[in-house]
């Protein structure tokens, strides 16, 4: 086994892969009106022939900057053996996040952190392709720096038990909700059609984009609530559109549609603002959800300490890969706040399904108020796409972190030379 684990990383390639989703308004919200779902796509080659695949999710033009950042990190990875990395994964995480010249760009936030996620996701993929891991080993991957005031390594080990048998997940899967019916740029007719289809396929939880125009929001929420009936679940997502007071008054006007949560009501950095919104909306039975642009575990720590969110939305590509997401899962558990991961984008469902299954099996053992986002775009481009059955994520069967793309897809979608882009004025 040790031999197998040596796998020296001899090459890192990163490619700018973009999908023209904005043409059909897929993924559109109150702030991102023309999103082209994209990825900085990383491949790690080893001398043993084993390959690791990782990515981070971005939008369109932003991808080229992330690609540069990944290239800058490559020298810290190439030449290392997998064994060397995972035997001190905490140290390797720090090497990437604390490089004395590059940390000035973050630290642990923004483009450099997205790039870190892409690289580490590929390392996790490589590792997952070689063997199973023990919970204890996983805790040794977490960098506890800056969070020991709420969570120590010893405590983490206590929390991390094998809480649940995997059988239930194998049979029923992990509950999901869909965001695909109600992107902001979809006309009402499309929204109705997609909602009808989703109901037929067994979906019971729906997220609607809001925040650009109150009248539109009222109309769209009314349509959806009428279609899904009183017992199904509705969530709304403003993607950071409002100031604090505006968020409270706007959402109060949508309260009649009984949303479970308002997501990203204001700046993702405004912890006290989210606390104020949480407090104001609690009497209406509406929680606050955020996390897809929460920069790191330290911010999540403070969100939790300040009771500023009622749903933790981890993101497989915004945080520093599995290492940092584990820290957040454990802190959320300690504060008794449910985790409902952000997914969608391109590859995010494929990645985050692993984290939420882990959360259920090893940390929370609880499904109340918990569900994982699902978005029905671009799965066909992956070699092991997610499997959804009756609105549940079915556990992935293939070894690895599930974000290997078809090579033909990468070639066609590579920006700017791929066929998809060559003839498009963008
Ligand atoms: C630009 C993207 O589609 C976002 O709108 C999306 O991630 C969204 O916030 C979500 O919660 O799925
Ligand atoms: Mg969102």
UniProtKB/TrEMBL annotation:
A Pfam family recorded for this sequence: MR_MLE_N
CDD domains: rTSbeta_L-fuconate_dehydratase (cd03324)
EC nos: 4.2.1.68
Root EC class: lyase
InterPro entries documented for this protein: Enolase-like_C_sf (IPR036849), Enolase-like_N (IPR029017), Enolase_C-like (IPR029065), L-fuconate_dehydratase (IPR034610), Mandel_Rmase/mucon_lact_enz_CS (IPR018110), Mandelate_racemase_C (IPR013342), Mandelate_racemase_N_dom (IPR013341), RHMD-like (IPR046945)
Reactions catalysed: L-fuconate = 2-dehydro-3-deoxy-L-fuconate + H2O
UniProt GO BP: amino acid catabolic process; carbohydrate catabolic process
Keywords: Lyase, Magnesium, Metal-binding
PANTHER family: ENOLASE SUPERFAMILY, MANDELATE RACEMASE, MITOCHONDRIAL ENOLASE SUPERFAMILY MEMBER 1
Full protein name: Mitochondrial enolase superfamily member 1
């Amino acid at each position: 086994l040790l031999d197998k684990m040596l796998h020296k990383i001899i090459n890192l390639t990163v490619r700018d892969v973009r999908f023209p989703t904005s043409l059909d308004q897929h993924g559109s919200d109150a702030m991102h009106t023309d999103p082209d779902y994209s990825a900085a796509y990383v491949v790690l080659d080893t001398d043993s022939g084993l390959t690791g695949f990782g990515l981070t999710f971005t939008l369109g033009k932003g991808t080229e900057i992330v690609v540069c950042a990944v290239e800058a990190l490559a020298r810290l990875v190439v030449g290392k053996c997998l064994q060397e990395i995972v035997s001190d994964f905490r140290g390797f995480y720090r090497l990437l996040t604390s490089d004395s010249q590059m940390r000035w760009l973050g630290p642990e936030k923004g483009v450099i952190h997205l790039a870190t996620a892409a690289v580490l996701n590929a390392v996790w993929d490589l590792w997952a392709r070689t063997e199973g891991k023990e919970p204890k080993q996983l805790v040794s991957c977490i960098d506890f720096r800056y969070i020991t005031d709420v969570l120590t390594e010893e405590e983490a080990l206590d929390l991390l038990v094998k809480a649940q048998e995997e059988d239930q997940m194998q049979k029923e899967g992990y509950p999901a909700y869909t965001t695909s019916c109600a992107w902001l740029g979809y006309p009402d007719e499309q929204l109705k059609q997609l909602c009808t289809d989703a109901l037929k396929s067994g979906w019971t939880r729906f997220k609607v984009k809001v925040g650009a125009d109150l009248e539109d929001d009222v109309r769209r929420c009314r349509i959806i609530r009428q279609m899904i009936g009183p017992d199904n679940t509705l969530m709304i997502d403003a993607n950071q559109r409002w100031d604090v007071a505006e968020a409270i008054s706007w959402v109060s006007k949508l309260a009649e549609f009984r949303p479970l949560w308002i997501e990203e009501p204001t700046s993702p950095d405004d912890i006290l603002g989210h606390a104020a919104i949480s407090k104001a909306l609690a009497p209406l039975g509406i929680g606050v959800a955020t996390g897809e642009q929460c920069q790191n575990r330290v911010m999540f720590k403070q969100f939790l300490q300040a009771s500023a969110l009622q749903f933790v939305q981890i993101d497989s590509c915004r945080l520093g890969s599995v290492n940092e997401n584990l820290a957040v899962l454990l802190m959320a558990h300690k504060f008794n706040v449910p985790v409902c991961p952000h997914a969608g984008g391109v590859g995010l469902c494929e990645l985050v399904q692993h984290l939420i299954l882990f959360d259920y099996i090893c940390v929370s053992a609880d499904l109340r108020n918990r569900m994982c986002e699902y978005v029905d775009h671009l799965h066909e481009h992956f070699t092991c796409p997610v499997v959804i059955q009756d609105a549940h994520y079915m556990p992935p069967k293939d070894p690895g972190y599930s974000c290997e793309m078809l090579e033909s897809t990468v070639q066609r979608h590579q920006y700017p030379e791929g066929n998809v882009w060559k003839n498009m004025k963008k």
